[in-house]
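> tool_call: predict_assembly(chains=two)
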Amino acid sequence: MMLIACILIYMAIVKKYEPLLLLPIAFGVLLANLPMANLMAAPPDDHSQVGGLLYYLYQGVKLGIYPSLIFLGVGAMTDFGPLIARPSSLFLGAAAQLGIYIAFVVAICLGFNPQEGAAIAIIGGADGPTAIFLSARLAPELLPAIAIAAYSYMALIPMIQPPIMRLLTTKKEREIEMVQLREVSKLERIVFPIVVTIVVCMLLPSVSPLIGMLMLGNLFRESGVVERLNDTVQHALINIVTIFLGTTVGATAVAEVFLSPATIKIIVLGLMAFVFSTIGGLLLGKLMCFLSGGKVNPLIGSAGVSAVPMAARVSQSEGQKANPANFLLMHAMGPNVAGVIGSAVAAGFLLAMFGS
Amino acid sequence: MTLMDSLMVSLIGLVVVFSVLILLSFLIKFQSVVLGYIMTDKNKLDAASAKGKDTGDFTAEGETVVTAEVPNIVDEGWSTGELRLLGVDEKTAAMIMAIVSHESQIPLSELQFKMIKAIN
């Protein structure tokens, strides 16, 4: 495990694969597997001794506190303007959750129980905090493998998605230039997080911690009256929580759990979920292109897999390769942020189905 | 759980995700229409109020409010949001806005452009 930790540290520092999270995760793996250090040791039942440092920090993962706080920061950093300007982006955000459900079926076929299958399948949502939130509740023993797979694949999006995008779209479709999005008023931006919170949390209460925090962060940003709070959640808070989250998730990767055939299956299922989510978004993008008479570039569909803003950048890059005058970034940001909501809704559904 | 059960769960899950997001998209559209209507009414009231002041109204402090005279330009171009482009394409307008922002050292998010017009 110490060797794996060193490889992950190498990938984070040299290859720069999601270093902000992979580096603390990798170091957490190293810390947890140091002989005699007992950093993840729980205190004895009579509390005669204190537990290890990482055991206490891990409670934030176990109780779902860190992923929700990460969502608070993500909400403050996210501009939902492109989504409000084109609400049909939400359809793409929904279609790009296809991989979650295909991976779930395959996981069941591979012998995982429904809780484990759901936790593995959520990797297809390409949303690290959501994957950690769901895994910690449904299959905590698989959490390190799921978190590492989810963040690794998110970092590999520029390699995973382009071949699928080119395979499923024609050059003519990739060349489509989309019309400029309308301007979104400040009032619309302020009302949006309130409406989403009320609707989604009433329909799926199990996902309230994630959606509630996401939209609170966004309201901080859009209201314009709490600049200090907005600044704190966007920078200081999210950085602190990322350190705790990464290190403690890594610290759960002890050899007897991590070095098992299940980890290999999780890595394969995660990749499959990613691929099918990309396919789902692209296929609906093609349908929207057809129905709109060629006004929608199907490349923006792949951005529905969440992974903000990496997936939107990939759409932009592929669109510009086909047509240098193509600027898809803002159009892809709509499905991209819709994917965040979509994956949270999918997680809420799975939690409602299989949570205790 | 059997294969059939997992397929059913997946199908229901997809339907739930689509239903929630489709509902949200309709709510956003509805919200945009309602808020757009309210904003249009407010803008009309503001414009009427400004027009009244322009024709010699006095403020409570007794100072005349002077508003810039807007030339009567026939809108021969097309509009995007509140920015009117007259004889200027979108890319040129974007370039002009970026140059103004750079030269004035004011971030684009703090600048509001009303109209960009080509002068022959």
